[in-house]
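Think of the structure tokens as a kind of shorthand, similar to the way a musician reads notation: each symbol stands for something richer, in this case the local conformation of the backbone. In the example below we present two proteins back to back. Begin with the first one, reading the sequence and then the tokens, and try to describe in your own words what changes along the chain.
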Amino acid sequence: KNVMNNHSATHVLNFALRQVLTAEADQRGSLVAPDRLRFDFTNKSAMTVEQVRKTEEIANEMINKQSDIHAKEAPLAVAKSIQGLRAVFDETYPDPVRVVAVGVTVDDLVKDPSNPAGTRTSVEFC
């Protein structure tokens, strides 16, 4: 359970960083262990104290909502068109691909990939 929680936290942190740093932040890796997580990302400069505070605020808000986490395989072409999706697009993904979303079902996102709900939460290939 701790590994699952920490894995979910990497998705939440990735979303929060993208909200604060926009396209400047790019995940480069992560470590998920039962007692900790590490999230590696690039940015054009060190984060300011205010950026760290805002990132923590967004992440904590998402965690405190206790939203359901949804995971489901979807056709790659459709999944790539989901608005708000985070993926490393130079990486090769299987078809179908596993999509993980916080607080919104993957079925809803696949049914309507232009649904803006995907921009308000974490949606990633995983």
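Once you have a description of the first chain, move to the second and do the same.
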Amino acid sequence: DYLQTLFGFFNAPLFATFILGMFWKRSTPHAGWSGLVVGTLSAVTVWVMSLAGVFTLPGQGTAFLAATVGFVADIIVSIVVSLFTEPKPAAELVRLVYSETPKEHLVDPLEKDLPWYRRTVPLGMTVLAIT
């Protein structure tokens, strides 16, 4: 329970910040930090409410709820703060935000000369076949 609780506190808000920042070019650094703090605090609040007996959930229910609340709070706060802060120029977002990265930067031109076990697609297919 301890590890799941900590993951709910920190990993869910961090994942929300990462995903929003990677795929939404309007996201700002202030929004990322604000969302991370509010998401973490809201997850901790859910956990404290559970300890106080406000609600009880079986098994890992509290950790799951805390993670969900932390994720959603992070996304909402990040979007709101982003709308009130100035975004970075598009030129600074190349290779950081997917929509601002030219397609030629997504392919390694030297990969074709590498052996199969060092290339992305054959290695990924091998891992998928093994698992």
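Compare your description with these statements about the second chain. The radius of gyration is 20 Å.
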